[in-house]
Amino acid sequence: MNENKGKKTPLIPNNWKWITFEEAGSGDKNAIVDGPFGSNLKLTDYITGIEGVPVLTTKNLEHGYSIENLRFISFEKFSELRRSEVRSGDVLIAKIGSVGKHAIYPDGLPSAIIPANLMKITVNKEIDTNYLNYFLDTKIFKDQLSSITSATAQPAFGITKFKQLLFPLAPKQEQLKIVSKIDELFSQLDAAEAALKRARANLKRYRQSVLQAAVTGELTREWRESHQGEIDELHFDTNKNSMYLEKIVNPYGWGVFKFEELITKSQNGLSKRNSELGDDVIVLRLADITSDMVNTEKKRYIKCSKQEIDNYELHKDDLLCIRVNGSRDLVGRVIRISELPETMLFCDHFIRFKLKNDNMAKYLSLYLNSDLIRKYIEKNMVSSAGQNTVSQGTYFNIMVTLPSIQEQYKILEYIEQAFSIISNLDKTIEINLKKISHTRQSILSQAFTGNLIPRELEL
After folding, report:
1. Are residues 160 and 86 in the same domain?
2. Whole-model pTM?
3. Average pLDDT for residues 337-360, to the nearest whole number?
4. Model confidence over 361-413: pLDDT tens digits?
5. How far, in Å, CA of 55 to CA of 114, rounded?
6. CA gap 137, 156 in Å, rounded
């Protein structure tokens, strides 16, 4: 077995050798280059229409090279930047931001230019491009790349150091066999992964169908019919207010309210980001919400005054609504606050609703996250500069169908049973997806240490 002296690398077969990425390039002057410096490719250099030379971005590495994913420069500008030209078969790698993301520029596409955050490798003829491209997914390569990547808010590495990273060169025919075997095995894993993702999507649809049945009365139809005459009239009382619905609108005998009628208070959260005065207190952020629950593993403390604490402190059964986010799917989602381990406020990315009757909190959080309400929220949210926003007023006008407290509890019982099954199935799917990911890495590790395909005995 062959070992690279002076550097920590895995053992490889004797007829393989470790070479640098510089040696893996074609040897041409611009075989391994990055895009032009920012001032050499400005926004004003881009042209309208498609009569020019495409400029690639990191997005193309993942989402393809269709016209809608490309911008163009003139042929004159292209001639100035020709050093950074990309041709079919070149390997593209992100060197700033999404460091290490990579793809092969497909056959049949015209020459293009890369910007400063990408680099390209025109591969040596003795190296199969797919062989090199697969190596970029290995832990062996990723560990090397990590060692030269700056640990800043915008991760980046330089071309000079990249060229000195190591690459395991197998004989050309063996490379082809390795690629063929990886393709075969990955094809099987791709099919399994796709099946698991379809199952997860089906679980998500089933979850919403259960919610839909819950908030429309179908879920508890049989229970309701078997308990006629035993269900209390719909009413609730608080010290601050009381309401009683005399006219039943819902066909199942449920009350219909505007959401505004069910709350005592609504407010946006604390806009303060830091201070030198006051007491240290946790301020909840979007990052602290996972799977519709509060997660305080990474707490952020801010000094706040007593008045701010009194005004923004969260309590059990408060409903928090995500007010603003870049994701349309997240905006408007509602989280019910359960018991909190310590005092906690909420930031201005949220709206807090306090209910007239806390007993309704669980049911309302389900109702407000149902497809019925999601469609209303998505229709009424405001989008600007990549951010989506929902207002308190939008929520005030939501019509809520409200069963008796007894039926709410029965709905929650059914929901908890169904969601527990869904959660367990989803965890099983996640475990298997991770196994597939680990299997991919195992295959790649074997491939690039000479252990994936049968080999002739070495002398």
Report:
1. yes
2. 0.79
3. 92
4. 999 999 999 988 999 999 999 998 889 999 999 999 999 988 888 899 999 99
5. 6
6. 18
Q: In the numeric block, which tokens belong to residue 455?
A: 């080999």
* Tokens 């998505």, residue located: 378
DSSP codes, 289-325: EETTEE--TT--EEEE-HHHHHHH---TT-EEEE-EE
Amino acid at 296: T
Angle separating helix axes 361-368 and 172-216, nearest 10 degrees? 120
Question: Region 118-131: what's the mean pLDDT?
Answer: 97
> 399 and 272: one domain?
yes
Q: In sequence order, which ranges of 40-163 are alpha helices (DSSP H)?
A: 58-63, 75-80, 129-135, 139-148, 159-163
Q: Rounded distance, CA 378 to CA 329, Å?
A: 8
Same domain, residue pair 142 and 238: no
Which structural domain, as residue segments, surrounds residue 392? 233-403
- Is the domain of 202 the same as that of 161? no
**DSSP H/E element including 376:** helix 371-380
Indicate whether 8 belongs to any domain: no
28 contact partners, CB below 8 Å, separation of at least 6: 122
Number of domains in the chain: 3
Say if CB 102 and CB 91 are below 8 A apart. Answer: yes
The enclosing domain of 350 has a CATH number of 3.90.220.20
Which residue, 357, 386, 403, sits at the end of a domain? 403
E strand map for 16-121: 17-20, 32-34, 46-47, 53-55, 71-73, 85-86, 91-94, 102-104, 112-113, 118-121
